[in-house]
Amino acid sequence: MSKQEKPVSTRRKFLTGAAAATAGAATLGFPMIAKGQAGPITMRFQSTWPSKDIFHEYALDYAKTVNDMTGGDLKIEVLPAGAVVPAFGLLDAVTKGTLDGGHGVLVYHYGKQNALALWGSGPAYGMDANMLLAWHKWGGGKELLEKLYKSIGANVVSFPYGPMATQPLGWFKKPITKAEDMKGLKYRTVGISIDVFTAMGVAVNALPGGEIVPAMDRGLLDAAEFNNMSSDRLLGFPDVSKVCMLQSFHQNSEQFEIMFNKAKFDALPEKMRAIIANAVDAASQALTWKAIDRYSKDYVELQTKDKVKFYKTPDAILQKQLEIYDQVVEKKSADNPLFKEIVASQKAFAVRAVKWDMDNNVNRRMAFNHYFGAKAAAKK
Q: How far apart are CA 175 and CA 48, in angstroms?
């Protein structure tokens, strides 16, 4: 407690009589905001990204959104990966209260409960990341995620947000023209993708983002995927490879995760909990807009300045991914009832959402070619 803290009666005016929340916050060492009291409630976060990555920028953006919306009464401070714990140690650190919260992706907890990877690692039955978030919010995903975390004793409150664009197959020494070209490659990926690529004959090494390029530079990896044009460029992929294969089903619907230690989150005043939850939605949309702007710019820069050659992943490889993914899901569903339950829930949502999307939304390629294609260029 702060030495400048006002009496309990004063604090109750701010907390609107929530004595239990006050007691809980006191136990956890939170300073209560009261009239005349110096200093806000502070929460220490860590991201799972290096400070130079745009993903860490997204974490800072979310923290600023909360800090601004609370008028400074709650202050989230964000540290980069490794500042307190390694990137893959975030869930344990938040559960134990070593950190108050963090910013990452659910697939990084794959080793604790493989069903967590279903939030973005795989084809998601045709859903893109925004649809998967719709399933999470309206199709039962939120309740299933709470059940998953409870099953492994994770003391966290989780907010998936920030739909990601389809992730490239990755960076290679030469273009991949058929599935056989990947056999024997030392390749980085995470989540269920480990199982999929292993079945394709790939030697997989799951590394955090900041360790990938150094591993490629030392020859410990032959190829790797991370996420997007901006992250890949900032992390230095063009320095170790000039070939990037676009499009893949291994992670075409991933999203980020904001998590809080549950006891510390529950101890916050109700108003602050509501601000945190609503800030997730606001930051999610802002992230989407920023990503479109930044990724498209870096896509151009990678080609013009970094001399990277982009190739579309052949359909035969994409089809192979789907076939192997089905085999992986069948096995994991047999071994894990929660995995099976989540798959069934996603399929039920996808069959109507994806059908509606494909039937309803016009194909943008026709319009793009009309305005910017060869015929349009010839008219100029």
A: 30
| DSSP single-letter state for residue 99 | S
| Distance of alpha carbon 208 from alpha carbon 174, whole angstroms | 24
Chain centre distance of CA 13: 38
What CA–CA distance (Å, rounded) separates 189 from 196?
10
Q: What is the CA radius of gyration of the chain?
A: 22
DSSP annotation of 51: T
Amino acid, res. 299:
Y
Determine the Cα–Cα distance for residues 253 and 73; give it in Å rounded to an integer. 35
Among 39-43, 69-73, 274-278, 279-283, the minimum mean pLDDT is found in: 39-43
Whats the size of the chain, residue-wise?
Answer: 380
| Cα(230)–Cα(55) distance, integer angstroms | 9
Which among 210, 182, 208 is positioned nearest to 196, based on CA atoms?
Answer: 182
pTM for this model (two decimals): 0.87
Domain boundaries, the chain: 8-122+151-163+255-293
State the maximum Cα–Cα separation within the chain, in Å, rounded to a whole number.
Answer: 77
The superfamily in CATH containing domain 8-122+151-163+255-293 is Bacterial extracellular solute-binding protein, family 7 (3.40.190.170)
DSSP 8-state secondary structure symbol assigned to residue 115: G
Written as one letter, the residue type at 347 is K
Whether 243 and 172 have beta carbons less than 8 Å apart is answered as yes
pLDDT tens sequence across 335-352: 999 999 999 999 999 999
How many CA atoms lie less than 13 Å away from 242 in the CB half-sphere? 7
